Amino acid sequence: MTGVISHFWWESATTNFLYQHVALSEDLFFRRNVLLRFITWFNDPKYTWQHKCFFLRYVVTPTLLVQASRSSNSDRLIDTDFIAQLHRLVWTPLSKGGGTPGIDDMFRTELLHLTTTLVQYYPDLLEDVKKDIVKYIWFHISNCEDVIVKQMGYLLAARFFSTFPTPPKFILRAWTGLLQLPHSESRPTVRYEALSTLVPCLPMDVDESGYPFWAKETRRILSEEPSSHLCIYHLIVKQPDLFFPVRSLFIPHMTSTLNRLGLSASSVPESRSVSVEVLATVFKWEERAAQETKRAADEGKPIPKELRWRTPLALRETMVGYLMRLATITHETAVKVNLTPRVLSLLQSIVGPNGWNDVTVGLRFFARALEQNDFASEAALAQGIAAAKVLQVVAADQPDSWYIANAPILQKLIMKGLLSEDATLQDILYPIFDKLLSLFPLTESAPSGDTELAEFHRTVHNVFAETSMTSSRANVRGVLLIVKSVVRTTPEMFSSTDGSGNPGNSTNAEKFMKLFSELVKDHIRSTPGTAAHEANVRLLMMFLDICRDYTSALGESRRWLLMALVALVDKTKSVTLCKYLLDMAKTWVHNKHAAYPINKEKASLMQKLANFESRGDALFTPYLELIYDIYTDPSLRRSELTSRLENSFLIGCRAKDSGLRERFMDLLDVSVSRSLFNRVTYILAVQNWEVLADQNWIYLALHLLLGAADLQVTNHTRNGSGPLHAIPRPEPQHILRPLQRLLFLDPQAANDVWVSVFPAVWASLSRREQSDVTNHMINLLSKDYHIKQASLRPNVIQTLLAGIHACSPPMTLPPHLVKYLAKNFGCWHIALEILGSALDTMKDDDPTIRDYIYDSLAEIYAELAEEDMFYGLWRRRSLLPDTNIGLAFE
């Protein structure tokens, strides 16, 4: 293997070297000498024919081709002397049987290629040797057995005939010779290049029947030599314009050979592919004929004979039938992947609205594969799927009248497959079922009678209303597809019962939701990643599709739906299902005109979806985007939905995505009055911070407080002179806006800013406002939910108490509340400071409050084991000398 690779590497390197240094050389004199050297030792016996062959292949012919491709040929590389030498050495002796003994076929091939290059690019130098070149051509075509040499001879003939005037009989001889070459022995590329070269110079003389001689000869070969069928069909596909005027000669024969090409035991993938390409060409011919006929009629011109001929209906029906059979037979996997889509695409074009509308498709063709098939084996199922795909193509673009006319047979063809266990088969047949049901909607009660459509309706009724709908049924997916169509056409079916009139019977909606609940339980118990789990997820999404679009039809059973959705949001491990639930909620939210679900039910689901915060940003970010859309939708402003989703809105204010978080915070900022007192009241009394209780939310409170600042303050110039006094003050927004954005990132910085800002806010309030704020602060500090962040440092209680301690005049807090906060939130030292300051400001005529403060201080000192402070405090409180004596003994 290594030796083979080394050989190819050496050959490639040598070839590139020769191309670069000879053929692509800019030195005209050097290249001319190389060509003359070849002429010099052409007959030298010291050099083998193989040596000369490779010299032709890699040096002589490439040099001539490169020279011909260059834009300027003013300096001719070769002249008539070079042509005369070739004439003497090559064309004359090699036109005779014994001209050059020992020459091999590979060398003959290279000489033919060289001659072809000269004929194609240097024809003006060949005027004096044309006759001998023709003899040279016919000698190789007639006498050489090697198929490559013969084909190169035909290619040379085609190039010669397309370059020099030639009698028609020679052109026809070359044409028929190319067509008669055995297909298995020829090189298709060389043959079709030669045929394509001959096309422009074919004689267009016609016989008494009105057809050109070349067309008659081609038709004769097609009839007499079956081995040439593929070659001629390939040619027709590649040259459709050439054969269009004479298509009436070929289409009948092409139609008669379709079965042999694609359906016989000897058919091969190539012949089947060619048959499809041929039929596609015929279809394009028919379209072209119709278009050109219409154009001629519009312009008032006579319609030519070749346009008046149309493919007979019987032949077109045969073609359609062939495509249907070809699409349903068993193919190898590789062939099926490439061939079947092409067949179905062509069939769809033919039977579609712009195709052959007069062709009748026999639907009985599908009975064996779809109606009589039980799909028990893989082969039977594969046959059923193939037939269903063809039926889907046939029915796809048909008008309603076609469905009405064929409804009895269509309903028989689709029901067994629709209720099978295969999802692919169900998906293919479902559009036909849905169309039939839209044209023939169900009634609430099963119809009576013996008609085929009545039987179809009874079958659907039984499927929809049967009491055995359980999640263990293998064909539950097919049942769901049927239910989806039934509810779309007859929503009242959800509220009906089995028709017995018993009021205790369950409605169809209740049965449906019972099945849904069972599937939800199965999903929660299933193991993620297994095939059963994925299948269950797909079934649940089908159920939810129906519930989403027809919620109002569920009636009182909506509560089952909401309970199941809550269970799924809480316990599902499927990301796909979570995304679906989010999309479902989005659909409900944006569908404002639907009566159901009501806003309360929408809000209930949206609140539950907040659990996605623990599932990662891929789920939580779209959820927050939806919340933001709800609050920015003018039609939902002040609605029940927005009032119930305030907690979800606050969650958006702590989103990890900075851009999304800032949008939420800015929206909150503009929704609150800019009055300083109103903002403080909103922070301390109006807003419920319980949803953010596990996080220090003081950054959000600061965002609101800083948002109350007046950003239009006049920029006063500093007094004095010098460069420092010439620097203008920064605009307030240039400091406040970045500060509002950055506080979320550092709780300690937010704590420090609050301790600085809150005393200034407090000092800006009136006495009455301070009294109200004090009451609000006491109520806020008393909330139980703060305990969730007791372990945080700094927590919101520590921050609030630190801000209170810095206020002047001081804010008065109940001593027992301060003691409680100190014990539970680690506010020991700030609580001591607050209580100590309270003693200093407390009036002497209020001994009860003073005792409360002393008791609270004493208890805090005791908790901290500060014995000196504890006993010192009691000595300070003592009223009698005996108390001091007793404390001294302690």
From TrEMBL:
<dbReference type="GO" id="GO:0006281">
    <property type="term" value="P:DNA repair"/>
</dbReference>
<dbReference type="GO" id="GO:0005634">
    <property type="term" value="C:nucleus"/>
</dbReference>
<dbReference type="Pfam" id="PF20206">
    <property type="entry name" value="Tra1_ring"/>
</dbReference>
<dbReference type="InterPro" id="IPR050517">
    <property type="entry name" value="DDR_Repair_Kinase"/>
</dbReference>
<dbReference type="GO" id="GO:0035267">
    <property type="term" value="C:NuA4 histone acetyltransferase complex"/>
</dbReference>
<dbReference type="GO" id="GO:0006355">
    <property type="term" value="P:regulation of DNA-templated transcription"/>
</dbReference>
<dbReference type="InterPro" id="IPR016024">
    <property type="entry name" value="ARM-type_fold"/>
</dbReference>
<protein>
    <submittedName>
        <fullName>Uncharacterized protein</fullName>
    </submittedName>
</protein>
<dbReference type="GO" id="GO:0000124">
    <property type="term" value="C:SAGA complex"/>
</dbReference>
<dbReference type="InterPro" id="IPR046805">
    <property type="entry name" value="Tra1_ring"/>
</dbReference>
